[in-house]
Amino acid sequence: MFCPLTLLLYAAVVASRPFTIHTREYVYIGGQYIKQADGAFSDSQMYVEHLRPVRVSHPLPLVLIHGQGQTGTNWLNTPDGRPGWADFFLAKGYEVYIVDQPERGRSPWNPVFDGGIQAVSALLAAQRHTAPELFNLYPQARFHTQWIGNGTQGDPVFDAFYASQVQSLDSNSTVEAQTKGRHAGSLLLDTIGKSILVTHSQGGPIGWVIADARPSLVKAIVAIEPSGPPFVSTDIQPVGPARPFGLTDIPLEFDPPITSAADLRQRLVSNDSATTCFEQAAPVRQLATLRRIPVMMVTSEASIRAAVDPCTVRFMRQAGVSVQHIVLGDVGIRGNGHFMFMERNSDEIAAVVEEWIARQERC
Ligand SMILES: *[C@@H]1O[C@H](CO)[C@@H](O)[C@H](O)[C@H]1NC(C)=O
Ligand SMILES: *[C@@H]1O[C@H](CO)[C@@H](O)[C@H](O)[C@H]1NC(C)=O
Ligand SMILES: *[C@@H]1O[C@H](CO)[C@@H](O)[C@H](O)[C@H]1NC(C)=O
Description:
single chain, two-stranded antiparallel ribbon, disordered N terminus, binds 2-acetamido-2-deoxy-beta-D-glucopyranose
């Protein structure tokens, strides 16, 4: 049961700062009518929320893109009730745009003509993300300490987090998710202008394809544990082929150009229980547009993705992309999982990200 009293207690335990005063408006972008026998239906539109602090002191806004099973609520406040990352950036003077990916949350999914959907169980969320240390399904799980509460069903913070989870386009519908994310995201940037993208997990590929479509409108990308590694899907162990274009399931611009994913030659770098890592074999192609955009990748110490991200970084650098990879454990920030931006030290991690973003603005 949801228990507001205990939640208040948790918020008091974790020293909190006040929320930032801002204005808020929303818009839907990128929809189109689909004709059916019984009339026309709007599809593919993306919900976008615009938060603006009283004093804007940074020239470029941030666009925050959540991952699988999530919506824009990820960034608003933490499940224990503290101000979230959106608020952190508002307090620093950034305008913030928060989306619900097309067909997710407040962006409608149509059962007749949209792709299949899936949901993640409470047990799976606890094992992978909020309480991996209790299950020890992967080696670094035991380092996880930063989730507030015990991270399992029945704990009020977990329950608040899990209640915010929604169904998402399933693993057979990644092309649809990325195609619609690219379309709506491109139109958003056409409207709001040059921006900085901040993506998480399955939102990672959405950020890559938006930047590939609108390179002149993306100043920089912060990718928090983006989907990876190249060409392979992994859960606790490698599962099977995925992302035939390396970072994505839909084409990116390569140099020299490709006509199909088969033009990308794969070379196995390593293969162990945690990850199967491929890079390109010769002739190595460059990511023609992404190489013009600085990228920060952030990986936490105890995340299920910790073993995977270095391979994604390796692939990107080989393809000419300038990636600064921050491994939080290496900079003294210990014990985080995949949902680091909701954990006890969420502001500490936001500060690392903000410092990098502010530096990109000046270049
Ligand atoms: C987590 O805390 C809840 C609420 O106190 C409790 O019901 C549950 O048994 C705890 N789970 C574990 C694994 O400790
Ligand atoms: C994806 O499609 C395959 C083949 O049709 C099917 O076996 C599998 O269950 C589907 N996956 C999901 C998540 O629906
Ligand atoms: C990686 O190792 C696993 C387990 O030994 C094996 O099943 C798989 O085929 C290997 N993958 C590649 C690409 O060699």
